[in-house]
Amino acid sequence: MILSASQVDHKADPDRREGVIGNRPNPQAFLDQSPKLRLDVLDRLHDTSVLSATLFDRDLLVELAKLAAYLQLGKFPAAHALEDKILAAAFFEPSTRTRLSFESAMLRVGGKTISVADAKTTGVAKGESLRDIGQMFNSYADVVVVRHTEQSAVQELTEYLRIPLLNGGNGSDEHPTQALADWYALLKWRPEIAFGTIPDEFRLNIGIIGTPGNMRTVKSFLTLALLFPQNINHITIFSEMADPLGDEIRELTNASPIGIDFSQNLKQSLEYLDVIYMNAIAFLGDGYRFFGEEFMLDRDSKLKPDTVILHPLARGGELCTSLDETQHNLYFNQADGAVWVRQALLLSIFGRIRDVVPTTYLA
Ligand code: CP
């Protein structure tokens, strides 16, 4: 029998809240390690723009993930917390997840949204300047999420804005809130990354398939990975590019104690990788390019039994759908968690945590 949507009882199936398939780590297990929220840390986000993953240190990332976990578990109602606020989602480049999950996050905490889904429907099509667009955001919204093909656009916009700007992906540069979603998934999967020191022999080996120098999600993910030197043993970057890092991220990796190397032989490395982060799409010049066709994963890939795969999506042929039903699939949980971590971010930016979190949850 095929049920129509109206016949499906969504409330009776709590799994629908977290994606039905793949690895779904329990947010409670993460919170059990450190239940009290540190407002002194989260308050640093009040009225702040998020342009780069370098804004986050380990404490801020972990406290934000804890707030996200409480929201995901429904521990305190936040459905009206931002009902006097408007989020503008201004996307001058296509998106599925980032725009919709920001809008979903804002609506779930009671806020309102206005949206640009296609630059062609704005004054940009008539040559309108970022300066003038910025002035409109000031009048029409209280926070703006911007995605743009030009790396310089988000920085330039902040010069004209009096409201916080959240970088939803700027050219080949950064995608900091995607990295928050990536690490929210990983911290739920292995809470000891955040709170403990993993014994040397079990410290994580991470494989990154992609080029941090020109893939924004990869760059922001790697930036946050460097916050956990006590629990990450090694990072291997698989890329067909001669210089996958680029100058900016190389400065960060050079300053980190985490060992980083480069390889073109993914198959040979699979036996020791605990986490694989993959992406194949980069925005270069004036269009998209697909990289790494030789770095493909499917159900027959010789992964360790507990290896997890992250992918910011959209995917191409590099990530076979045959992996979707396996426990290697952390990528759907990663996409799902974006809604909760973006709610946590919005509550922090608007300084509304005290309005929704009972004092018993505060450090
Ligand atoms: N992860 C991500 O940035 O996806 P979208 O391009 O769909 O927003």
Provide keyphrases for this structure.
single chain; 363 residues; alpha/beta; Rossmann fold; 2 domains; five-stranded parallel sheet; four-stranded parallel sheet; 13 helices; 11 strands; 33% helix; globular; disordered N terminus; binds phosphoric acid mono(formamide)ester
How would you sum up this structure, described in words?
- With 363 residues, the protein is of the alpha/beta class.
- The protein folds into 2 domains: 178 residues, Rossmann fold (3-Layer(aba) Sandwich), CATH 3.40.50; 160 residues, Rossmann fold.
- The chain is 33% helix and 15% strand.
- A 5-stranded parallel β-sheet has the order 7-6-5-8-11. A 4-stranded parallel β-sheet has the order 2-1-3-4, with helices on both faces.
- It binds phosphoric acid mono(formamide)ester (CP).
- Phosphoric acid mono(formamide)ester binds next to helix 4.
Mind sketching the topology for me?
Elements: H1 27-32, H2 39-42, H3 58-73, E1 86-91, H4 97-108, E2 112-116, H5 130-140, E3 143-148, H6 153-158, E4 165-170, H7 176-189, H8 192-195, E5 204-209, H9 216-225, E6 232-238, H10 247-254, E7 259-263, H11 266-269, E8 275-278, E9 281-284, E10 287-290, E11 308-310, H12 331-349, H13 353-356
Parallel strand pairs: 1-2, 1-3, 3-4, 5-6, 5-8, 6-7, 8-11
Antiparallel strand pairs: 9-10
Helix pairs in contact: 3-7, 3-12, 4-12, 7-9, 7-12
This protein binds phosphoric acid mono(formamide)ester.
